[in-house]
């Protein structure tokens, strides 16, 4: 089979447009893959680049090299498909078949086409399409809605390669325009499907990370994040000597609100308390929900008197600033135990437990004192 450029200028312009579309898809795939660390898009960019190379070799009259390039395209596309459907269950055997064809059969057929000039494109696309169809049928229920674009792209690729394989048996010249059009449809459809799938999975990962790091009721950090920040503050204290303050904030009237107005009002009050505590903090400070009625606060770069004047007192004022939305006659009452973060290796959880013990003793005393400052010796065993 001999291929030549179209004699019609309009067909030549269309051929250039389709080739440019594929090159643009390569550029977008590489840029987005590097920006969002999406490996599947990077593989798709490499696959489309092989398609552009196959089209160029076909235009240049190297039909067997074009067939070899398309067989390699199918091989890389098979590995990308395996990456895209790795979330689906019951696909172990089909995925193994897809890997075997992509890494074994198709490269061997491509080598035979390039060296011995055998027409093996139809055999390669038949084997590739058989396994791909099985994989897509099993992955279809768990891959909505992005799989629709992927199926459309794979069908376009199968038709393009099968068309060229069939026409390769005819010694008459064939214009490369149909192949370029079908490859462009495949490149765009698979790009859209892959990008859509990656965005869905990225949002899922963000939600999982948020669930592990953010308390769903209050929006504050989880205790593990608080402990990690305390450990990081210690390193800065040892290096630069800047003190930091750790506070244990107790919402005093939650139990009474639950008895008088119900548990829903108490939960709403806890969310309001968390919001008001968060509003008093500076950028870089962290607050975490430690228990039902207690919130941990870490104020970096502050001494104990500064923390009492700038953070703790503002938290007390924030509770009394305005009544609760669910209980217009009630305000939030806080009690705070605070201490400078020690530089020793005592675990942050153990420090908070000692502060909680002092808080329990402070609550049992009939005192109007709202802020209790602890020295380093008070936190020692």
From TrEMBL:
Region of interest: Disordered: 359-381
Keyword Heme: no
SUPFAM superfamilies, A to Z: Nucleotide cyclase
Residues spanning the membrane: 12-36, 48-76, 97-116, 122-140, 147-166, 178-196
InterPro entries in UniProt: GGDEF_dom, Nucleotide_cyclase, Rev_trsase/Diguanyl_cyclase
UniProt keyword Hydrolase present: no
Comp. bias regions, Basic and acidic residues: 359-371
Limits of the GGDEF domain: 242-376
Keyword annotations of the record: Membrane, Transmembrane, Transmembrane helix
One Pfam assignment: GGDEF
This protein's name: Diguanylate cyclase
Species of provenance: Caenimonas aquaedulcis
Organismal lineage: Bacteria, Pseudomonadati, Pseudomonadota, Betaproteobacteria, Burkholderiales
């Amino acid at each position: 089979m001999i291929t030549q450029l179209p004699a019609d200028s309009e067909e030549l312009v269309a051929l250039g447009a389709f080739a440019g579309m594929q090159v643009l898809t390569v550029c977008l795939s590489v840029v987005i893959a590097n920006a969002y660390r999406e490996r599947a898009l990077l593989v798709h960019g490499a696959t489309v680049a092989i398609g552009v190379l196959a089209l160029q070799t076909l235009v240049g009259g190297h039909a067997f090299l074009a067939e070899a390039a398309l067989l390699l395209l199918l091989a890389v596309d098979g590995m990308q498909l395996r990456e895209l459907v790795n979330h689906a269950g019951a696909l172990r055997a089909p995925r193994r078949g897809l890997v075997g064809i992509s890494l074994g059969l198709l490269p061997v057929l491509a080598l035979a086409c390039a060296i011995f000039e055998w027409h093996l494109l139809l055999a390669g696309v038949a084997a590739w399409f058989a396994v791909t169809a099985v994989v897509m049928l099993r992955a279809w229920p768990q891959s909505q809605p992005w799989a629709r674009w992927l199926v459309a792209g794979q069908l376009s690729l199968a038709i393009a390669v099968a068309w060229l394989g069939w026409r390769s048996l005819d010694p008459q010249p064939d214009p490369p325009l149909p192949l370029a059009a079908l490859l462009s449809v495949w490149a765009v459809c698979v790009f859209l499907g892959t990008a859509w799938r990656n965005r869905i999975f990225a949002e899922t990962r963000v939600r999982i990370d948020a669930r592990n790091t953010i308390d769903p009721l209050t929006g504050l950090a989880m205790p593990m994040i608080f402990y990690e920040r305390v450990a990081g503050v210690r390193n800065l204290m040892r290096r630069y000597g800047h003190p930091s303050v750790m506070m244990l904030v107790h919402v005093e009237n939650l139990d009474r609100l639950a008895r008088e107005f119900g548990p829903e009002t108490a939960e709403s009050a806890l969310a309001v308390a968390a919001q008001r505590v968060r509003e008093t903090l500076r950028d870089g400070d962290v607050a975490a929900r430690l228990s039902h009625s207690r919130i941990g606060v870490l104020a970096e770069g502050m001494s104990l008197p500064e923390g009492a004047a700038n953070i703790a007192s503002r938290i007390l004022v924030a509770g009394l600033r305005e009544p609760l939305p669910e209980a217009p006659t009630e305000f939030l009452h806080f009690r705070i135990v605070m201490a400078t973060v020690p530089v020793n290796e005592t675990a942050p959880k153990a420090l908070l437990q000692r502060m909680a013990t002092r808080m329990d003793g402070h609550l049992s005393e009939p005192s109007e004192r709202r802020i209790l400052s602890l020295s380093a010796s008070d936190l020692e065993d």
